[in-house]
Predict the structure.
Amino acid sequence: MSFKNVIQSRMSLIAVLIAVLIIVYPLGYSVADYISAGNAAGEKPFLERTAPEITQCVEDTIYMRYHHWELLHAIREDVVRYGKRSEVSLNNCRSCHTSREKFCNKCHDAVSMKPDCFGCHYYP
Amino acid sequence: MDRRDFMKLAGGTILVISSGTYAFQFLTGSIRSATGEGIDPNAVRWGMVIDLTKCQEGCTACLDACRQENNVALHGDPKLDVHWIRKVKAESMIGNEVQEKSILLLCNHCDKPPCAQVCPVQATYRRHDGIVIVDHHRCIGCRYCMIACPYNARQFNLKDNEHWANKERPKRSHGVAEACTLCAHRLDVGKPPACVEACQNVGAGAIMVGNLNDANSEVSQIISRYATKRLREELGTEPKVHYVGL
């Protein structure tokens, strides 16, 4: 059996393999990138405690890490659409998380996500 | 009728009914929210009275206060500058006599706001207390509202605003339309708008804001006592800025 015949008989298998590679590539790339970056400099985003005496945010840390933007959206909806100006606002976050450089930007830069908040809202 | 025709007919009927009801709800819902229908008649309905007979010639206290409070962009270039409240000279001819009058122009917070009706993303809307406001988070900068507004009250940010006078309040970056918000953030906490306060501090007291649904409020009293006019009433937009001595 010639090489050409082998290729032809395994055509479907090769196609599937290529498809799987294309799908897995970005995931694998980011995992590899994360591992190599972590090993090289240990550069995980690290948030500075700017107000050490306060240990508890409005929700626990892991919730805030993944869902803080949902809370911000909810506040925004209340204020902009319904005029309910409660105690909780972006301005209140400032009392503990004093600096954008030390707080928001650390993670957002690490994952290269650029929030639009600060084009209009003041945060030191 | 054979099986195939039956299936076609049944499927078609379901499709037409479901899409039809959805489209009906979607369309009437957006129109209703934009025209302010179905709102509580006893709720607060903010309105403004501007007494042009008390307004002082050459005074710009309200304009400056507005700029200071709301970080309205002033680049020094008339093409880029944004004005939420303007003082314009209007001329009227009676016979051969030309009368000049300076008039304050701002968003009229119409009860049937054309700007809200045309907004394709419902960024502009009428709040439950009658204030017409732009959600800048949602605005895509298409400028339909500027074309729709018969009062030319809408302005567009062609450039980022670099002056940030009042850090407690947001400024606007380029690409969004904006207009007077009747200082909704101040009314919500029980304070009068910045222009009203400035006008009182100057001693003129020409601008008043109050609840139009309350017959005892200052603005309702003035409207019932004096012959007040609204701008371009014939368009049926139901503006809520009333002028004395126009």
Observations:
- The mean pLDDT of chain B is 89.
- The longest helix of chain B spans residues 3-35.
